[in-house]
Amino acid sequence: MHAMKLEGGGPVIEITRRLTEIGIPVMGHLGLTPQSVHALGGYRVQAKTEEDANRLLAHAQDLHKAGSFALVLECVPSPVAAAVTESLSVPTIGIGAGPDCDGQVLVVNDLLGLRAASSTGPRPKFVKAQADLAAIITDAVTAYRTEVESGAFPDAAHSYH
């Protein structure tokens, strides 16, 4: 591991400071924090009110001062992400935070259209699947099962003699 990603502000700021003081690189993560998604009421846009936006901006600045080398901004309004990005000298990485972050990221399963069957609720608005590999995988597994059940696979060409 080359670095840690810590979610949230508040007490995480002091932990970030302590870790960076002893040489452990830390990336901050604000907005929607996946490890706390259920406490936040699900996958919802964060920092929508002026008060919440100001708190997120303050936490971002405090994380930067504490030594965070970059900051993930997840599921926050574009203007909030733009203000945070403008206020910091470290890169911001957006996931559902608009185009003004220094970089962008998506969860690879979302990008590839591999949303788990156990996923509940609608796909987050910021997800743009670039492929539908779930359908391709389902078709391939179905074909495999059919061939095994019919005895067509494995055949002589796919067996060691």
Helix and strand topology:
Elements: E1 4-7, H1 11-21, E2 26-31, H2 50-65, E3 70-74, H3 78-87, E4 92-95, E5 103-104, H4 108-111, H5 133-150
Parallel strand pairs: 1-2, 2-3, 3-4, 4-5
Helix pairs in contact: 1-2, 2-3
What topology, given as strand order, has the largest sheet?
A: 1-2-3-4-5
CATH superfamily of the domain at 4-106: Phosphoenolpyruvate-binding domains
Strand content: 5-15%
Figure out the total of helices.
5
Mean pLDDT: 88
> Could you give the order of the helices and strands?
EHEHEHEEHH
Brief synopsis:
The chain has five helices and five strands. It is α/β, with parallel strands linked by helices. The chain has a domain at 4-106: Phosphoenolpyruvate-binding domains (TIM Barrel).
Describe the protein's architecture and organization:
With 161 residues, the chain is an alpha/beta fold. The protein has a domain of 103 residues: TIM Barrel. The protein has 5 helices and 5 strands, in the order βαβαβαββαα. A 5-stranded parallel β-sheet has the order 1-2-3-4-5, covered by helices on one side. Helix 1 packs parallel to helix 2 and helix 2 runs parallel beside helix 3. The chain is elongated, with a radius of gyration of 21 Å. The mean pLDDT is 88.
